[in-house]
Amino acid sequence: MLVARDFSVQAATSDAFADTRLIANAARAAGISAPLLDRTASCTARAWPSATDGWTWCRSSGPSRRGPRRSAGRPALRSRPLAVGVTSPYGRGRVCAAGGRRARGGARSPATVPRAPPRCGRYPVSGPGGAATDAEERDAAFADTVRRTGASIGALYLLAPDEQVLCLDVLSGVPADFAAPWVRVPLAAPMPVAVAVREDRMVWVGSQEEMSRAYPRTAMVVPYPLALVAAPVTGVQRWGVLMLMWPATRPPYMTARERGNIAASCRRLARLLEEAAEHGRLPSPADGPRVVLTGTDRRPVSPTMAVADFVERLPGGSCALDLEGRFTFVSSGACDLLGRDADQLLGTVPWQSLRWLDDPVYEDRYRGAVISREPVAFTACRPPDHWLDIHLYPDASGISVRIVPCGGQPPPAPAPRNPARPAALARAGRLYQLMHLAAGLTEVVGVQDVIDLVADQIMPAFGAQGMVLSAADAGRLRITGYRGYAADVIERLDGLPLDTGLTPAGQAIAGGIPAFFGDPDEMRRIYPQAPLMSDKQAWAFLPLIVSGRPVGICILSYDRPHTFPAEERAVMTSLAGLVAQALDRARLYDLKHELAHGLQQALLPRSLPTIAELRVAARYLPATRGMDIGGDFYDLIRLGDTAAAAVIGDVQGHNVAAAALMGQVRSGVLVHATLGTSPDQVLARTNRLLVDLAPDLFTSCLYAHLDFAHRRVTLAGAGHPPPLRRLPDGDTRPVELAPGPLLGIDPDAVFPVTEMPLTPGLTLAFYTDGLIERPGVDVDEAIDGLARHLADADDRDLDALVDALLRQAGPDGRRTDDTALLVLQHRPAGDGERHPGE
């Protein structure tokens, strides 16, 4: 091949010249007319395929000594990258795109390695005659959905088989590193993908403002204008969720047709997953996500001399980045403006090869362009005083970049950091990961929450395969959670002395300094007596210190030798401080919650009496937030052979005083009920007791007297939600209860009574407000909804019925208040039918 006199252009036929996208964007920025560009591209598209089949071309300003020749013994042009040498009439140097190697004399010769088979993520795309794998079919369906919906970013999450976690299976539109904080998403997380699966509904977020209102934690770490939908992938079972994102330029609403198309795509994915499950070929969460290319297929347009000259004539500089941020094309004008040769730029990311761009602010501009798919512009200073306007034009395949000198006084811009400083410590990607993880650590409550967050989010963020979290307890390290280790290994590691200097863990805690070992040899050199109890090959020992006091240690480990750069060590060390504080708070919470729960259980009845004519089921669930004791209570009282009493109540507050008052109320009701007092008098006397004991605490209460001899139920209420009654024919509704005031307010209060027949098969449900109160839901609507669930439930097993009612009240497992539920069903003596639960 001839060596061009002035410069060469190199490109692969698969992405020739970053295709004409770069030229179109450059022309638009430079004011070149669209018709001229169209004619140039059209001529190129028509002339190039027939003129260059099997040939390697070069043109110089003068006649060639050898001219074009067929590459003897080499693959045809369409099976290998193409190198084209072009002489510039302006003599401005080289225009280079990735794809060739340097030849003698400064030119780049074509690469001779045959192009790899086409791939879809990690999986080769099956050609004619080859059977597609389950993963390929799923990836193809996923890619088709992303293309048809016009989404810029797509992700498919699958439920882990034995965990309440969503694992990222397939990703498109962004580099895998961008998704590192979200490779594993807890099902209880306040994020759109988790909500869609928990509530089995499509979640639409139409704008950045809506994201900030509904999901502030997600908005904090993805502060870009975008629209998002998360749709559950459900068939015969729940499989996961499909997430799609669009730039903010799309309308902030979703049409019914779009919803239908996305729902149909989710059903298609569910069918593919069901087929894979039937053959035992479901993906493993340990496989990690696959990155799938979903860009629209385009006929490649190979660069010609005219196109190369066209780019060189444009003012300023042009270059292209792939989605990973690497240079794939650099024009000679860009080389001049950036102060680097093309060879120094191609294949690198700007903040590595151009130290004056090594600032998180600039990297964030790139991240914003990739995620939002909107043009981004900023001003940067190339030392000492060369100000440049840089414009980014993104799409699904990469980013076209235009660089022009800044005219006039530049706007305020972040000062480039001194290259001599460790600038890598503040990489923008790491900063976003740190923000995301820090936000998650502020939300954890118990020790198990800390373990899950470290395993689900911190491990994937650093690419670790193992984790051990230990807490300091009585001079020893007690393992509280782990991942990636065999149980026998954990058993040997559990309970190591805290002050030993023989192991990295003990030394790290004693000195409060993290320790990093890239391979076993490095470990043995420093700690020759430390036994290697597992097959791990690299370790990070992160001491957890709070106010100078060791609370534990977090160990991240790797299956292969691993280099720990300074940036990663700094982020791990910072994160260890946050984990330490979260673990310390969580241990305190668990301790207080355990004490509170134990006291609560002691105040509630250990078991309910067996009554011949009643089937009974009851539950008490504490709130999932808060560490104090609740005041909810219930009881069933035997009143001889022909009667019984049921009571349920809720004392105001969540503290020791409320729990103590709850115990006194329950005792008072029990005493008055066993004396044969009528329901209204039971409440009246208990009310006077409360006024004397605690005038600042109020109590709601519902008391029911069941007379089996006369088939009557007499009820009296004190500011408590009405019970639900279900007849044998399924008719279910709230009981129209005469209202009474709360207990503990007026010593002379009167509590009216309500009577109803006690028919065979009658079911009564007593509950506290924790079962019906939810933000934004009217109480009456919530009671009606609870009645509908009671009507639809199978009453042959009361325990299953009670569990079903509790699930409908909190489908995501979160409860803001304590909940008590007592269900009674009348079964007259002589009814020979046996039921589950009796």
Automatic annotation (TrEMBL):
InterPro entries: Bact_Sigma-Reg (IPR052016), GAF (IPR003018), GAF-like_dom_sf (IPR029016), PAS (IPR000014), PAS-like_dom_sf (IPR035965), PAS_4 (IPR013656), PPM-type-like_dom_sf (IPR036457), PPM-type_phosphatase-like_dom (IPR001932)
Function: Primarily acts as an independent SigF regulator that is sensitive to the osmosensory signal, mediating the cross talk of PknD with the SigF regulon. Possesses both phosphatase and kinase activities. The kinase domain functions as a classic anti-sigma factor-like kinase to phosphorylate the anti-anti-sigma factor domain at the canonical regulatory site, and the phosphatase domain antagonizes this activity.
Full protein name: protein-serine/threonine phosphatase
Species annotation: Streptomyces chromofuscus
UniProt cross-references to Pfam families, sorted A to Z: GAF_2, PAS_4, SpoIIE
Region annotated Disordered, chain positions: 58-78, 101-134
Signal peptide: none
EC number from the UniProt entry: 3.1.3.16
Catalyses which reaction(s): O-phospho-L-seryl-[protein] + H2O = L-seryl-[protein] + phosphate
GO molecular function: ATP binding; kinase activity; metal ion binding; protein serine/threonine phosphatase activity
Lineage, highest ranks first: Bacteria, Bacillati, Actinomycetota, Actinomycetes, Kitasatosporales
Top enzyme category: hydrolase
Keywords (A to Z) from UniProt: ATP-binding, Hydrolase, Kinase, Magnesium, Manganese, Metal-binding, Nucleotide-binding, Phosphoprotein, Protein phosphatase, Transferase
Domain PAS: 303-347
